[in-house]
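Two proteins follow. First one:
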Amino acid sequence: MEFTHELIMPNEDLPFKMFQFEGKDGNYVRDKHWHQSIEIFAVFEGGLLFYLNGEEYSLHAGEFIIVNYNEIHSIESPCQNDTLVLQIPLKTFADYFVGEQFIRFTHDSRKQDEQMMEVLRNMQDTYSEKKCGYEMKVRSYYYMILYLMVTKYRVLEVTPDMIRKNKKLTRLSVITSYIKENYDSELSLEQLAEVFGYTPAYLSRMFQKYAGINYKSYLQSIRLEKAFQELINTEHTISEVALNNGFPNSKAMGRAFFGKYGVMPSEYRKNMKKTKK
């Protein structure tokens, strides 16, 4: 399966980010995580598997999914795919909040899905071609997407539990932002708890209860994600990649990498080079 569509880089003049999914080459797994923005994944070729709040969603060509702000999700990309990702700031929907800093969109298919996919495809093509005035045309597609989201996909019935969990994850996001800035150094649960004024036991419970993952697994997932990007985008040695991303040595990274991807880093890099030839 060959896809010729090139990576779309975010445009600084646009009020959102638009790019090709990082797992486009397949054999890719993104562990549990959440965002302070709202994401749309639109699959044009291939397929993806999403896990949101304990439920599985299989995405095929011609389908999309909206991932809500502070919604715990993981992604599996077993094969090559052409997937567009949009990241929309939460403040974009400030006039449509149904609770304090809260808005939610459905994952269910609607009759408007075909229209949404057409707009997403047109926006992707327009940005890629970059003809005269493309920025304005891309913005027009973007606002049509926002219109469809608030009129066709917004969920108006929310529970106090949803809002309470959202607040907890917002607090936890401050902590995970710190982790993402310091993942390449030694960062024990005890050290992190001290930085934020919590006990290690309380912080551990926060991760497990609201993020659905323990602290050690979360930290390792961040390190693996960063190591994965360095592995495929640089010529650094495996040992350099390991040390640059918080692993004590290449063996430790290799074990973690194999556990997630079912292949050693060196073999993965070799296979990637063969695919690109």
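Second one, unrelated to the first:
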Amino acid sequence: MKVLVGLSGGVDSSVAALILKKQGYDVIGATMSIWGKDGLAVAEGKHNACYGPDEKEDIEAAKNLANQLGIPYHVVDCVTKYEDIVISNFKKEYLQGHTPNPCVWCNALIKFGVLPEIARLNGVEFDKFATGHYAKVEEENGRFLLKRGIAPHKDQSYFLYRLKQEQLKNIILPLGNYTKDQIRQIAKENGLQAADKPDSQDFYGGDYNELLNVEDKIGNIVNTEGKVLGTHKGIWNYTIGQRKGLGVSASEALYVLELRKETNEVVVGFADKTFKKSLIANDLNWIAIDGLKEARKCQAKIRSTQQPVDVEIRPIGENQVEVIFDDMQKSIAIGQSAVFYDGDVVLGGGVIESVK
């Protein structure tokens, strides 16, 4: 069986390719090229991100790995699609005062969509597509399930919840039963150059304003009573729950509670105001079930680094659910994803539309 492996130049995808080769698969390497802003220089010391000018170094690292493993290697031009899908969504959401998650859209639409599609159009023949994500895909009763990886703090199923059945049945995730330490050890034992390479820390290594490319829009920073405490240069410079760099002070620490596009206001308040009981999520994608017909208890994550917490989810409209938390949650950001779990199984998820 021929397997196309998405290579990033990092240790995870490198070991994924190695494992598959040792398992007897006919492995082919491919890296998606997504950086198309050659005139934009990311500030020094801000590299080590998925999207940035050091992509050339990552491609070179991936090429060297392919040579080391003795596998064919291809660079797949995904620049235009990435700009049209991921960057445009990122810009639109931020300018509305939302906090998008570019990695979620990139995985579903680019990495597991455009990359293998363009590779095939370019004449690369393969049966399955693989990546170095820490998650698992298993077939049960004709349905392909996405499950959490065994390492709780490295599990990446949150980023993959938008994958469709057609995608899941054609992918292999070799790292789901490994910890990060085990992967680095395998890389060292096999002399892979990426063994000690740091993980990517963010989707973009520079100032987000470089990507947004908009003029300052002066507005007010207000408290929950509407009192003006200061001014800002654009609501997109703030995120829900932000505490530092607000430029205003009070008797105790202030946090960003809300970003109001309509009035161009940043609303701040004390820590007790950051906790919420429920949210509405829309634009749902279900994996383990055929939609939500009635209320059910399960677990949910509202950010990638969080461990799942107990919730009840209720269908409230077409492609919408209400999520009610057993314990109030801090700093829920509109635009992020709420992903639902039944133990280790990803039920599905959606985009956070509002918070109550």
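SUMMARY FIELD: The chain has seven helices and 17 strands. The CA atoms of residues 104 and 213 lie 22 Å apart.
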